[in-house]
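Renewal narrative, Specific Aim 1. Our central claim is that a sequence can be written position by position from structural information alone. The example that follows is taken directly from our test logs and has not been curated for this report. It begins with the structure tokens describing the chain, in the order in which they were read.
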């Protein structure tokens, strides 16, 4: 359903609420070199921005939607990881908070 304030899509799933922007407009927030890096890795990007209120909600959503996705996940904290690599890290480190700890710091 559309969010009355933002106009973005709102999804309610597993007791969590998500704001989903399918417009691709988030790409305007990237620097040209970042877009070039993504384009080099996967071709022309199509971006989806998902926001939620908790890490538990983020993990639940990403575990549901990322399996089988051939793309990248931008943690919004200086890392862009392949979706499969990101899922492996989330499954291997259930308490991982990518906002506070780089994937390279995981043991």
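The sequence written for that structure reads:
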């Amino acid at each position: 359903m559309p969010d009355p304030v933002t106009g973005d899509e709102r999804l309610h799933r597993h007791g969590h609420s998500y704001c989903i922007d399918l417009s691709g407009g988030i790409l305007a927030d990237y620097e040209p070199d970042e877009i070039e890096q993504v384009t080099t890795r996967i071709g022309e990007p199509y971006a989806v921005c998902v926001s939620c209120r908790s890490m538990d909600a983020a993990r639940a959503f990403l575990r549901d939607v990322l399996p089988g996705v051939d793309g990248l996940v931008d943690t919004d904290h200086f890392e862009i990881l392949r979706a499969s690599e990101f899922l492996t890290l989330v499954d291997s480190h259930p308490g991982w908070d990518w906002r506070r700890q780089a994937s390279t710091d995981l043991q």
